[in-house]
Design goal:
Blueprint: E1 3-7, H1 11-22, E2 26-31, H2 34-43, E3 59-63, H3 68-71, E4 74-79, H4 83-93, E5 101-103, H5 116-122, E6 130-134, H6 139-142, E7 148-153, H7 157-167, E8 172-177, H8 180-202, H9 207-227, H10 232-235, H11 238-249, H12 254-263, H13 268-275, H14 280-295, H15 300-309, H16 315-323
Helix pairs in contact: 8-9, 8-11, 8-12, 8-14, 8-15, 9-11, 12-13, 14-15, 15-16
The structure holds 1,4-dihydronicotinamide adenine dinucleotide and 1,3-dihydroxyacetonephosphate (13P).
Residues 106, 136-138, 191, 194, 243, 246-247, 253-255, 280 line the site of 1,3-dihydroxyacetonephosphate.
């Protein structure tokens, strides 16, 4: 019977464990402590997912690290913790260096500006066997069995196919890609644009304004992606426009809600506290700007989001600056 490991009893980690189980796999869900293991076992998942018990008998919940005994039967691992905790979680998980490991996080490393697969490589994991999972995947919808699609990017399509089979269950449909850079960058950068969209919703600017932010946001995500070696098509796919649409429009999105709270005049730290869960875009904005500066790429929306989070200006000031930019040709990155 195939077995997979999932690192992190987060909303997404528990959802992925449930999907792997529903697809017929045994799962080892690695958590931070025995106390957390007991709580997740007792709830059959996570209360904040609001779906009741979702984990069945084939999901085995254990504190990290993965024991040598368990590792022997494991075909791959998914890491589903926020990007700021990613490095430490992978180190604590003790996954064998030869194991295929996929990042399910949507962020960039604050200290090194690295993508999560680059963090894995720095920790000694084989670049040929690491990958990234992304797409319009709100955990609260997927855990209820609602239809959704995702994309898994691995350098080797054969490995991607194995992950597709492992994860595709019921109404969850996984596509394969080889553009690891693009899938990771799209997943991280869209969170920043969703904060801007949330701010526009918060100011009651309407759907036209949100659609403009999404479209110009996608253009700047793509520009940076191309400069860093991604493929343009990925930004037109599930990890790009797909996830951007879900995150900018869904009231379930924490990044969107963060933008709405900023527009209501809340301080960034208070807004994060109120949401009480991961707001990846708040960490990603300054990192994306650093990457863009190094690559000589302009990211006007991301720059305004970072300035608001940094306390340099208010949301209305940031919106006025975007609207006041010089009129330009509609440049859409092509390759
Ligand atoms: N929630 C969602 O719908 C989706 C989330 N993601 C991504 O998955 C990653 C995790 O996000 P969520 O599942 O939403 O997290 P979450 O907001 O449900 O959980 C984050 C919290 O989980 C706790 N946690 C549990 N295990 C942890 C560990 N091993 N290390 C550190 N903290 C741990 C911490 O208290 C942390 O603040 C993020 O990068 C997010 O962008 C991706 C797709 C969907
Ligand atoms: O990445 C997500 C959906 O695909 C989750 O979005 P939020 O982190 O904004 O809630």
């Amino acid at each position: 019977m195939p077995a997979y490991a999932v690192v992190g009893a987060t909303s997404w980690g528990v959802t992925l464990a449930a999907l792997l189980e529903r697809a017929g796999n045994d799962v080892i869900l690695l958590v931070r402590s025995e106390l957390e293991a007991r709580a997740v076992r007792a709830a059959g998942g996570l209360e904040r997912l609001g779906a009741g018990p979702v984990l069945g008998p084939r999901v085995h919940i254990h504190p990290m690290p993965l024991t040598a005994n368990h590792a022997a039967g494991v075909s791959g691992a998914l890491v589903a913790v926020p990007s700021h905790a990613f490095r430490a979680a992978v180190q604590a998980a003790g996954l064998p260096r030869s194991l295929p490991v996929v990042s399910a996080a949507k962020g960039l490393d604050l200290e090194t500006s690295s993508r999560m697969t680059e963090v894995l490589h720095a920790l000694g994991y084989d670049p040929a066997r690491t990958g990234a999972l992304s797409g319009p995947n709100l955990a609260h919808e997927i855990i209820r069995g609602l239809p959704a699609a995702a994309v898994i990017a691995t350098p080797d399509l054969e490995l991607g196919r194995a992950w597709q089979t492992a994860l595709s269950a019921g109404a969850f449909r996984v596509y394969a890609s080889t553009d690891v850079v693009g899938v990771e960058l799209a997943g991280a950068l869209k969170n920043v644009i969703a904060i801007a969209a949330g701010a526009a919703w918060g100011l009651e600017f309407g759907a036209n304004a949100v659609a403009a932010i999404m479209t110009r946001g996608l253009a700047e995500m793509t520009r940076l992606g191309l400069a860093l070696g991604a493929e343009v098509a990925t930004f037109n796919g599930l990890a790009g426009v797909g996830d951007l649409a879900a995150t900018c429009f869904s009231p379930l999105s924490r990044n969107r809600r963060f933008g709405e709270l900023l527009a209501a005049g809340r301080a960034p730290a208070d807004a994060v506290d109120e949401i009480g869960e991961t707001v990846e875009g708040a960490h990603t904005a300054p990192v994306a700007l650093r990457l863009a500066a190094a690559a000589g790429v302009e990211l006007p929306i991301t720059a305004e989001v970072a300035a608001v989070i940094g306390g340099e200006r208010t949301v209305p000031e940031a919106m006025l600056r975007l609207l006041g930019r010089p009129l330009a040709r509609e440049e859409l990155p092509r390759r």
